[in-house]
Structure formats: structure tokens, C-alpha cells
Write a structure and sequence with these properties.
Length: about 450
């Protein structure tokens, strides 16, 4: 009876939390809010200070009452934001109650302005309603849990109602992409423009830039208003033009990944006077091919030191751990260390090669026997292994049959020697006897 009621209570609790979870799928997000100091105060070089802010996000349908919730005393700024895109109601932005991991959010004040970029400038050819732009504009950049997604939203706060709306959102569901070498890769990026905004339908443009260690270049630029692709474009980089117009799918398609394409890709979406961007990290991860030289290895004379090389090639990134091991006929594995690892060489395709030299002292091998020698190369792209059979002269691990045969051979030999020596000594004696007689 008690068991039943416990189960009953538990399931009731589960249903309750499920319902609550569904209802509160739009999160309250804690942000670092950077305030520009308009008046010179304190003589701080930074000219800005950071405070805590809370974003109360609600979907269009939700009749929200979160404003009445208790706000912690250290929160000076709260924003109640209507998100019709649903981008901010992603589960990666809404950790379970009491979770230590939280999304990371930065909020900044921004100033709408026309862009001078070639593929963006046409957006502001004709002057837009400046009245609409006269409002408080902020941009929130939020990184979801576990690198599942990130989003940047441009928020407009109306001066009259003090109500905040999302106007432009750009999101990616592939914050970190790993791809093998030479395969197609998709870097996700989607955008949304508030349909009730005068900026909606006024055109957009998409720009993908590549950045790696301080260097950058344009991957592609697309003027969506005039359906025009930039002249400068990375080979093999493409957008889905239909998807970009129909669903705001601005994902970058790389037809064939190369090692030197590893880096940060920034997806920027422009609408007249406004811009939002997200970053996607691409890493090309290619495991090594490995082989042991010489193969087959020389037959070892007991006590001799033999040198073997393990060559790993065609891998990226440069992160490889060698280890050698010997497996005897019973399956016991003896680790032999990493050998002496060479410096790396870079190939024409940007992949790396590296080798490890093993000096194997056969005297130190257990019982001086051979076995299977393996080189193991551990790489972020996977562990690869190559093996060769080592034979030590006189210790080729005799089997029972071999031993029987050897005993048999020994017996026959023994008999033969005995026989020969008998006949030889016998006749010899006769001769000497004869000589003595002479
Ligand atoms: C965006 O377009 C790419 C390429 O056509 C496609 O693979 C991807 O699934 C699309 N993403 C969404 C969210 O529709």
C-alpha cells in the first residue's frame, strides 16, 4: 500500500515537473551587461563598467508574470523580452533548476548604423524610417550549455512602452564542428527578423569570415537584396540560396575540407542598420596511418639490440602519442614505452608525419622469446595500431609437437652417434692390435 502511494506520488511529481518544464521553456538569462559611461567619471581608462542584468524571455503566446518574481538584490537591470523567433527558448539556454552550469551571456548597448561593406551597403540605399531606429538598442550574445548552440539577438526597447522585442536573431547549432579531411562540412547558421519590424523585408545580407590566430579573410559575402554573391569567395564554399531566402538558413557549406580550413568562422547577418553574428569553430581531425619498419623485422639473435621504426603519417591536428607493446604467445602484454619520438614534418596538404624509434633489447624480453610487437598511435581522431611478429632464434616458442619431434630427433642422433663411434672404435682397435703384432 505504501509502495503504491509512493509510486503514485512520484509519478504525479514527474508529471508536474514535466508540465512546469514545458511551461517555463523560455528561460530567465543572467547576463553581464556592459554600460558605456556617457559622462567622464572616475577617470577609468576602460570607460565602461559591467553590471548584472536579467533577461526575462517569453514567447509570443506566453502571458508572462515573471516581472513579479523576486529579483535578487544585486540585479540592477531587468529586461522583459518577447521572443517570437523561439531562438532564446532553446533548452541549452534553460538549465534545470539548481544547475551549476549556466549559459554565458553578454549584453551590450549598440548603435544602429549603415554598413559600408560592399555586399551590405545596398541595404541602406534608401533611407529607412529613422524614427523606428530611435530607441534603445542592445545586443545579447549567449552561449548555451555544452556548446550545443549560441545565439546573438538584437533587442529594441521602445522609448514609450519600455517594452523590449527581439528584432534580429542569429543562431548556430554547430558551435564546434569536427570533420575528417576531404569530406563536406556544414557550418550551421540561421537568422530571424521580426516580421512586424519595418526592417523585415527590407533585405538582408550574409557574410562568412574566417579567422585563425589573428589572420582573417572573407569566405563569402551574399547580398540577399540583389541576389548577388561576392566576387571574392573561398573555393568550395557555398550557401543554400533557396534556404537562405525561405527559412533564413545561412549555413555555410564547405564542399571538401582541408587542414588549413581549421579555425573560427563568423556568420554575420545584416539587415538595414543592424547586424548580428555568431561564431563556429571548425577543426579538421584526421587520424594517422601507421606502419612499422622494417617489416618483416629481422630475426633476432638473443642478446642483440634491434631498432624498429613506427611511422605515422597524414594526421591532423598535431597531437599524437606513441606507445610500443609486446604481446607474448599467452597474450600477456608488456608495455615498452614510447620509444624516441622524432620531430614532425608537414606535408603539402597540411597533415603531419612523425615517427618513433624503438631500440629493443631482446635480452630484456621475458624469457628472451619473441611475440607480437605493436606500435600504438593515440590521436584525437582515433587510435591506430600496427603489429609485426618478432622471432628470436632458438626461441620460436616450441609447441608440444615440436618438443616431441626434437626429443625424437635427439634420440635418433644419439643412436646414430653411438652406432658410428662403436663401429669406428671397434675397427680401430683391431688395426692397432694388428700393428702391435707386426
Ligand atoms: C540548411 O541548409 C543546409 C544545406 O542545404 C541543410 O543541410 C541544413 O539541414 C539546413 N538547416 C536547416 C536548419 O534547415
Amino acid at each position: 500500500m505504501t509502495g503504491f502511494s509512493t509510486i503514485y506520488k512520484l509519478s504525479l511529481l514527474a508529471v508536474f515537473s514535466l508540465v512546469q518544464g514545458c511551461l517555463s521553456s523560455c528561460p530567465v538569462i543572467e547576463c553581464w551587461y556592459t554600460l558605456e559611461k556617457s559622462r567622464g567619471g572616475g577617470g577609468l581608462a576602460s570607460g565602461a563598467n559591467q553590471v548584472n542584468a536579467l533577461l526575462f524571455v517569453k514567447s509570443e503566446e506566453q502571458q508572462h508574470d515573471r516581472e513579479t518574481m523576486n529579483t535578487p538584490s544585486d540585479i540592477e537591470h531587468t529586461f522583459s523580452i518577447t521572443d517570437s523567433s523561439g531562438f532564446l527558448c532553446h533548452k541549452a539556454l534553460n538549465p534545470p533548476e539548481g544547475s551549476i552550469k549556466k549559459p554565458h551571456c553578454e549584453l551590450n548597448q549598440i548603435q544602429p548604423q549603415p554598413s559600408s561593406l560592399l555586399w551590405v551597403a545596398p541595404l541602406t540605399d534608401s533611407a529607412q524610417s529613422p524614427l523606428y531606429l530611435q530607441a534603445d538598442w542592445r545586443a545579447a550574445t549567449i552561449h548555451g550549455l555544452d556548446k550545443e548552440m549560441s545565439v546573438t539577438s538584437v533587442i529594441r526597447t521602445s522609448p514609450e512602452s519600455q517594452h523590449s522585442d527581439l528584432i534580429l536573431s542569429v543562431t548556430t547549432k554547430t558551435v564546434f564542428v569536427t570533420a575528417r579531411l576531404g569530406v563536406p562540412a556544414l557550418l550551421d547558421c540561421s537568422f530571424w527578423v521580426d516580421p512586424s519590424s519595418p526592417l523585415h523585408g527590407a533585405g538582408f545580407s550574409v557574410e562568412w569570415r574566417y579567422q585563425f590566430r589573428g589572420n582573417g579573410h572573407l569566405v563569402l559575402g551574399y547580398d540577399g537584396k540583389n541576389d548577388r554573391l561576392s566576387d571574392i569567395k573561398d573555393k568550395g564554399a557555398m550557401l543554400d540560396f533557396e534556404g537562405v531566402h525561405q527559412n533564413g538558413n545561412a549555413s555555410l557549406i564547405l564542399s571538401e575540407t582541408k587542414v588549413k580550413q581549421s579555425g573560427t568562422y563568423i556568420c554575420s547577418v545584416h539587415v538595414p542598420y543592424l547586424l548580428a553574428q555568431v561564431a563556429v569553430e571548425l577543426e579538421i581531425v584526421e587520424p594517422p596511418s601507421i606502419s612499422i619498419h622494417p617489416s618483416p623485422p629481422p630475426i633476432i639473435i638473443p642478446g642483440q639490440i634491434v631498432t624498429l621504426h613506427c611511422e605515422a603519417s597524414g594526421f591532423a591536428p598535431l597531437s599524437l602519442d606513441f606507445s610500443w607493446e609486446l604481446t607474448d604467445s599467452e597474450g600477456n602484454v608488456t608495455p615498452l614505452g614510447s620509444g624516441s619520438v622524432s620531430g614532425h614534418r608537414e606535408g603539402y596538404d597540411g597533415t603531419y608525419s612523425q615517427s618513433s624509434k624503438l631500440q629493443l633489447d631482446s635480452a630484456k624480453l621475458e624469457q628472451g622469446r619473441g611475440g607480437e610487437l605493436s606500435c600504438v598511435a593515440a590521436h584525437p581522431g582515433g587510435t591506430r595500431r600496427a603489429s609485426v611478429t618478432l622471432n628470436v632464434i632458438g626461441f620460436s616458442t616450441p609447441s608440444i609437437e615440436d618438443s616431441m619431434a626434437m626429443v625424437g630427433v635427439a634420440l635418433v642422433l644419439y643412436g646414430l652417434i653411438k652406432f658410428v663411434s662403436w663401429t669406428f672404435t671397434g675397427s680401430g682397435d683391431d688395426e692397432s692390435d694388428e700393428k702391435k703384432k707386426n
